[in-house]
Amino acid sequence: VGLMLAVLLVAQGRPATGKVNSTFDKSVDFKTFQTYGWIAGQNAFDPAAHKTIVSAIDGEMAALGLKKVEGRAGQVTVRYLAVRSTSVDLNKLEALERKGADPAGANLTVGRLIIALEDAKSSQRLWAADSVEAVDPAAADREATIKRVVARMFETYPTRQKAR
To answer: In terms of DSSP H, where are the helices of 13-117?
Structure first.
C-alpha cells in the first residue's frame, strides 16, 4: 500500500499551486458505497491541521451519503497524506535585507494534500485527489484554507463531476 501511494505521488507529479489533480477507476460505481473507514496515511505535522483535515474529509464523505465505521469494516477506506515545505526567494531575501526588513517575507511555505479512497478488502485505489496550496501563516486562516481545499478536492469525486 505504501508503494502504491509512492507511485501515486510520482505518477501524478506536483500539481500547480491551487490546482486539483484527480484520478479514479472508471469501472467502479461510486454510487453504491455506503460506508467508509479511516486507515493510516501521513498526518499533517500540526495537530490542529490534522484535526481540521480529518473533520473536513468526514464532512465531505457524509455529504456524499457515506457513513463512517471503524477501519476496514466499511466498503471503502480513506486516508490522507500531507507534507509541507518552505522555499526561500533569494532575490526577495536580498531586497528585504537591503531595506532592513524582516527576511521571513522571502519565505514561501506550501502544503501538499493527497486524499485517497481505496477498496477496503483489496486496497485497490478507487479515487485520489492531490493539491498544492500556499500555507497561511495565521492558524485561523490556515483552517479556512484547509476546508476550502478539501471541498475543492471533493468536487472531483466521480459522483460530483459534471456530465461532459
So the answer is: 47-63, 90-99
